[in-house]
Specification:
Among the domains are: 119 residues, Sandwich (Jelly Rolls); 58 residues, Alpha-Beta Plaits, CATH 3.30.70; 260 residues, Zn peptidases (Aminopeptidase, 3-Layer(aba) Sandwich); 96 residues, Jelly Rolls. The chain contains 16 helices and 34 strands. The strands form eight sheets. Strands 13-14-16-15-17-20-18-19 form an eight-stranded mixed β-sheet, with helices on both faces. A four-stranded antiparallel β-sheet has the order 1-8-3-6. The protein has a four-stranded antiparallel β-sheet with strand order 2-7-4-5. The longest helix has 18 residues. The chain binds N~2~-sulfamoyl-L-arginine and zinc ion (ZN). N~2~-sulfamoyl-L-arginine binds next to strand 10, helix 14 and strand 20.
Length: 824
């Protein structure tokens, strides 16, 4: 276990709890008898005789239809949590919401508006504030709901300055070492640096002690955040409505997401279907989403599915905003815009904007709190799981204000089964990339898994921030390119053409294991990508991080190209394109059920232990099961290929032309000045070379090599394509050569960029020479095996009429004829 970072909270933390529990008013106070008065003002249940759809967190609505509430005085300065829970089974699917207002100012303190009545509303208050706690019966049969209010005192801030720094990581090994040491890495990496958040002096010392050099990019994050939020306030005050599909001008809070989704569903009841995922979050929140297609209620309609998700990572707010704006785009455009109508009809779009509601609430509400100690919570990344904290005191406390601090929890983007337990994830409960105790241990990840396992999610985007990237599997180099690499690359290019991002394999950034699409793609075959939205920050000013990125406006990389809006449309076009998935057709009576089913085990990575030793891989089991409600007569069912990409072999090809001959790479006159900073912007040499394509040549690999004499001297090498993208690099230390590899390089002109990273002082310059650019033929494909879907036809009563084994590949269609007729 690494260092436990409590930042002084452990000693000073005292919790004051006022719990108004289900059976009358019970008071749990630690140390302050004055709580009785506040408790006496409260209630344990809320009652409303009629339901009324309303935005509960809009304003206090005393004595209005569907509303019940009470006043309560904040017993301490710190956190207030208002919780609702259904009173009984009947209330299970009813929908109550809750909001807490400051009576004096009308400020919305806390709110929760999930699709059912499992509400957890967190906010920050000052001791003595009079609060209005208001419950609203939005829909359903439950007249009553349980309510409890808890106050947790905020310990005096032992706050330290947090900084954003660029750490020098000239080699891949350096990057991996930085990950291994559990620094708080951002996604912003150049070929020679990674941006890291330092949460105080101890982090800075640790970084230096580990031998890393760094330059400070943002000296005082708290101050920077305050200025960013101020610019957000100005923007929201001056703009009534943005050009976003929703018109929003400011970052949503958690309740806004849920409320807006159910409002969309209420206003478009056949086009929009609300869904609540299988498991509630660690703190008990529902994970909600919507599905969009005509007659959305029939989830067994056989349409191909595009799942668009946000906020696996708490602080990455624009990722949720983008998913949400996408939902508005589809709803607004359906029936008005021709392309949208066509695509929405042909596909099913599922949007889950907030996969990590607990973490998001912690992060987003910390901004409302706004004091210096809050910023570490604003930069929370993971979920709220306390179970792996090593001591009981660190397992205590509510997530927004716990003795364990904001770094308690599991990284939801390291907890999926795909290659779980390998490099690029932490084994430490307190590490920012903590993988969790087991694959799929977290309910939030389990929820996404069940959603995907129960549908034919043919296309998936999981949104993150930031770094202007379209990432495709695999997450680790060793996995090898999947058989779908050419398609994944092409589709990545189509999306990158719109958002202006760099289209690369995930591992080209840094190694990761247990990520979303490294499970979903390899076991379901659904085409999956990670978007890293934006170029500068986890949640930059709204106008930059959301409006500009979504609509494709300056300063976004997609300015003038359509932005993420058009990138998502490209993905929806792919979803509608049968060449990108598989199709099962046939005939069947109306109202019968066709089911495709597959169960299998897949290994994780060999599991790296906390001491660094590598143990055996674990096997995890998946069950993929989805249904088609037959319309009667002909059906077409859009499904994923029957064979898991994991076992389908690996991409390769036979050459269609000879391999290109070696090209010289001659060293220009002179020696560039030493450059340990930005390789492309600082001093360097550039040597152009050409890669030929068929019919002249067919190259599987290009090797660009430079050599020199003394391995204490360090030259680095980068390969840049005609568009200015870095497409290859070799930047190691301690060798007397660099060898950059391009896999399947597209024909065109390239530049070798050679950087003089370090010479030996007081010695003559050790300049480089080169054997030139050499080429290899393509690797032949690696063979795999085929798997089948087991397809059953079930009569309306449930009995099985027929069973088929269906092998179908990507772009393929299998016609089963009269599929429910039993054949011997
Ligand atoms: O590290 C991550 O989880 C992602 N970056 S972030 O800064 N948003 O946290 C990148 C994951 C990339 N790898 C795969 N998706 N396989
Ligand atoms: Zn992320």
């Amino acid at each position: 276990m690494g260092t436990v970072d409590t930042r002084g909270r452990k000693a000073t933390h005292t919790a004051l709890l006022v719990a108004l529990a289900a059976s009358g008013v019970t008071i749990a106070t630690l140390g302050d008898p004055a709580q009785d008065r506040a408790a006496a003002a409260g209630k344990s249940t809320l009652t409303a005789v009629a339901a009324q759809a309303r935005k509960c967190h809009e304003a206090p609505a005393d004595r209005q239809r569907g509303v019940d509430g009470f006043d309560i005085t904040a017993t301490s300065t710190g956190l207030v949590r208002a919780r609702l829970d259904p009173t009984d089974q009947r209330g299970r699917d009813s929908d109550w919401d809750v909001a807490v207002f400051d009576k004096a100012t009308g400020r919305l303190v806390a709110a929760s508006a999930g699709f059912r009545s499992h509400e957890v509303a967190d906010g920050f208050v000052n001791a003595g504030d009079t609060l209005r706690v208001q419950g609203c019966r939005f829909a359903g049969n439950a007249h009553r709901v349980n309510v409890s209010v808890t106050f947790v005192a905020q310990p005096p801030a032992a706050s330290e300055k947090a900084q954003l720094v660029a750490v020098s990581t000239p080699t891949r090994a350096d990057k991996n070492e930085l990950i291994r040491q559990d620094f708080d890495l951002t996604e912003a990496a150049t070929d020679t640096t990674v941006d890291v958040i330092l949460h105080g002096q101890a982090d800075a010392d640790r970084l230096r002690a580990a031998g890393f050099g760094f330059t400070v990019k943002i000296d005082d994050l708290a101050d920077h955040i305050a200025r960013t939020r101020e610019s957000d306030r100005r923007y929201a005050a001056q703009e009534d409505r943005s050009d976003l599909p929703s018109g929003r001008t400011a970052y949503r809070r958690l309740a806004d997401y849920d409320y807006e989704m159910k409002d969309l569903a209420r206003r478009h009841p056949t086009l929009v279907k609300p869904i609540t995922l299988a498991y509630r979050s660690i703190e008990g929140r529902d994970i909600d989403g919507i599905e969009i297609t005509p007659n959305a209620g029939n989830t067994a309609d056989g349409k191909p599915v595009f799942l668009n998700m946000g906020v696996h990572h708490a602080r990455e707010w624009p990722s949720g905003e983008s998913a949400m704006e996408w939902a508005y785009d589809l709803v607004n455009g359906y029936g008005r815009d021709q392309r949208t109508t066509r695509l929405v009809s042909a596909t099913r779009a599922i949007v889950v904007p907030i996969v990590n509601p607990d973490g998001f609430s912690v992060s987003r509400e910390a901004t409302e709190r706004g004091d210096a100690a809050a910023r570490a919570y604003e930069y929370k990344r993971k979920n709220c799981s306390p179970v792996d904290a090593p001591t009981p005191d660190l397992r205590e406390g509510l997530c927004p204000l716990t003795p364990a601090g904001p770094r308690r929890g599991t990284d939801l983007n390291r907890n999926y089964g795909g290659f779980w337990g390998g490099p690029g994830a932490s084994t430490n409960w307190n590490g920012e990339t903590y993988r969790g105790p087991a694959p799929f241990s977290e309910p939030e990840v389990g929820s996404i898994r069940e959603l995907i396992a129960g549908r034919q999610v043919t296309n998936l985007i999981t949104n993150h921030t930031y770094s202007n990237l379209v990432l495709r599997p695999p997450g680790v180099l060793a996995t090898g390119d999947p058989v779908d690499e050419p398609l994944l690359y092409r589709l990545g290019e189509e999306m990158a053409d719109k958002n202006g991002y760099n289209n690369i394999r995930s591992w080209q950034l840094y190694d990761t294991t247990g990520t979303t699409e490294d499970w979903s793609y390899w076991v379901t075959g659904g085409l999956g990508y990670t978007f890293e939205i934006g170029g500068t920050e986890f949640h930059p000013p709204f106008e930059v991080g959301v409006v500009a990125e979504y609509l494709g406006r300056a300063p976004a990389a997609g300015a003038g190209k359509g932005g993420n809006r058009e990138a998502y449309f490209a993905m929806l076009e792919s979803t509608a394109n049968a060449a990108h998935h598989a199709t099962i057709t046939g005939r069947a009576p109306a109202g019968w059920t066709l089911r495709i089913h597959k169960e299998f085990q897949t290994p994780t990575s060999p599991v790296i232990g906390s001491d660094g030793t590598v143990g055996p891989a674990l096997m995890y089991s998946d069950v993929l099961d989805s249904t088609l409600k037959t319309p009667g007569g002909q059906f077409a069912w859009h499904v994923n290929p029957s064979t898991r990409p994991y076992v389908a072999g690996r991409y390769g090809r036979y050459p269609s032309a000879p391999t290109q001959g070696a090209q010289p790479l001659s060293n220009p006159d002179g020696v560039p000045a030493e450059n340990t900073g930005s390789p492309l912007d600082g001093p360097h040499e550039e040597i152009p070379f050409t890669v030929e394509g068929p019919p002249a040549a067919d190259n599987g690999e290009a090797h660009v090599r430079i050599e020199w004499k003394n391995s204490d001297v360090d030259w680095d090498l980068y390969i840049v394509d005609a568009q200015g993208h870095v497409v290859g690099q070799s930047a190691t230390g301690g060798t007397n050569f660099e060898d950059a590899v391009l896999i399947d390089p597209p024909p065109g002109t390239y530049r070798a960029v050679v950087v003089n990273y370090a010479q030996v002082p007081d010695q003559p310059v050790d300049d480089w020479t080169s054997p030139g650019v050499t080429f290899q033929p393509p690797k032949p494909p690696l063979p795999g095996v085929a798997e089948a879907w087991t397809l059953t036809c079930e009569r309306p009563g449930g009995s099985i009429a027929a069973v088929h084994q269906v092998v179908v590949g990507r772009g393929g269609a299998v016609d089963l004829g009269d599929v429910c007729r039993h054949r011997k």
